[in-house]
Design brief:
Rossmann fold
C-alpha cells in the first residue's frame, strides 16, 4: 500500500499540485492519502477524491494529525513536508520514502529520496512512484 502524508501548511500549493497530479496517475493502486493543514491552504489544491482531508489550524496541529494518521506498514511512503519533526518517522519507516519539499530538513537526505518539483521537474514524483510501485 502506498501511504501519502501531506502537510499542506509546510509545502507551497504549486508543489502540492504536482503531487496531486502524480497521484491521479496512480489512482488505481492500493493507497492511503491523508492531507492536513489550514482550511485556506487546503482549498488551494484539488485533492484526489479518495484523500482524507483534515482541517488543522494552529501551531503543529497538522503535524500531530499526520503523525496520528501514519501507519508503520512496509509499503512506500510519500511525505510532503520538509519539517524536521518528521525525520524520526521517516527514518523508521520500513519501506522506501519520498520527501517532497522546497526546503527540507537536511537529515531527510540521509534517510529518504528528496525532491522539489519546482527544481527537479514535473516528472520527479511520477518517476519515483513508478520505480517503487512497479
Amino acid at each position: 500500500m502506498l501511504q501519502v502524508l501531506v502537510d499542506a501548511d509546510n509545502v507551497p500549493p504549486a508543489r502540492l499540485r504536482e503531487l496531486a497530479a502524480a497521484l491521479t496517475d496512480v489512482a488505481s493502486i492500493d493507497r492511503r492519502v491523508v492531507v492536513a493543514g489550514h482550511p485556506d491552504v487546503l482549498a488551494e489544491v484539488t485533492w484526489p477524491s479518495d484523500a482524507t482531508v483534515l482541517a488543522a489550524s494552529g501551531w503543529q496541529r497538522a503535524d500531530v494529525a499526520l503523525a496520528a494518521a501514519y501507519l508503520p506498514e512496509p509499503g512506500p511512503l510519500v511525505l510532503a513536508s520538509g519539517d524536521g519533526d518528521f525525520v524520526h518517522l521517516v527514518s523508521r519507516h520500513p519501506g522506501p520514502v519520498l520527501v517532497i519539499s522546497e526546503a527540507p530538513a537536511g537529515a531527510f537526505r540521509d534517510v529518504a529520496s528528496v525532491v522539489d518539483p519546482a527544481h527537479d521537474g514535473p516528472t520527479a514524483i511520477p518517476d519515483w512512484l513508478r520505480a517503487v510501485l512497479d
